[in-house]
Amino acid sequence: MDLVSIRKSYRRYARHYDATFGRVFATGRHSAQKTLAPLEGKRVLEVGVGTGISFPEYPDGVDLVGIDVSREMLQVAQERINGGLPGVRGVAEMDAEALGFRDDSFDAVVGMYVASVVPNPDRMFAEMWRVCRPGGQILLVNHFASRQWLLRGVERSLRPLSRAVGFRPDMELDHFVHLTGCEPEAVEPASLFGYWKQVAFRKPA
Ligand SMILES: C[S@@+](CC[C@H](N)C(=O)[O-])C[C@H]1O[C@@H](n2cnc3c(N)ncnc32)[C@H](O)[C@@H]1O
């Protein structure tokens, strides 16, 4: 997967995303908010924010910025903001793997259903970590490679299709753990049967 094909795909999805994928991913977005609360007064960055479908779930007092590489997805997000979302400061076209923010800029950094889509998830996660302040939270909602050997084998066998479907089916959570040297604070199911997981990290203070 590369940025050109990602942009091309999401250009096509943008106007239908909320009615299709948006619904499928609703459970993960709800549970993310519970884990992140309380967010009032906090600076939050959401990477791969897409159409901003998560915006109404954030509390009013949050200071939220969203970034994404797809201009068309962001157009829908901007229309949402124009409809009145006081907590959302704005959205920007930006690569999650090269964030244009200073170190330690946010109290929480969130990435939902994006880690399996970006070209280099390690780089994205390193950037999320960098811009999160010490003591802040980094939250991923994603599918991670199964620990059950049979499912793991199936997921591996699907790897060659990932470019065609735009989704990496066997991403290892351990990569992120090694990258930061920090175990997650919590790993919880974010969908029925736990295919999607919510993983919360805390950057050491
Ligand atoms: C499956 S959608 C998830 C959207 C939203 N987070 C949600 O919960 O519905 C993946 C999003 O990641 C964005 N994306 C993919 N690669 C990216 C990158 N390198 N930097 C920023 N956004 C990216 C896509 O444009 C798309 O909007």
UniProtKB/TrEMBL annotation:
<dbReference type="InterPro" id="IPR050508">
    <property type="entry name" value="Methyltransf_Superfamily"/>
</dbReference>
<dbReference type="InterPro" id="IPR029063">
    <property type="entry name" value="SAM-dependent_MTases_sf"/>
</dbReference>
<protein>
    <submittedName>
        <fullName>SAM-dependent methyltransferase</fullName>
    </submittedName>
</protein>
<dbReference type="InterPro" id="IPR013216">
    <property type="entry name" value="Methyltransf_11"/>
</dbReference>
<dbReference type="GO" id="GO:0008757">
    <property type="term" value="F:S-adenosylmethionine-dependent methyltransferase activity"/>
</dbReference>
<feature type="domain" description="Methyltransferase type 11">
    <location>
        <begin position="45"/>
        <end position="139"/>
    </location>
</feature>
<dbReference type="GO" id="GO:0032259">
    <property type="term" value="P:methylation"/>
</dbReference>
<keyword id="KW-0808">Transferase</keyword>
<dbReference type="Pfam" id="PF08241">
    <property type="entry name" value="Methyltransf_11"/>
</dbReference>
<keyword id="KW-0489">Methyltransferase</keyword>
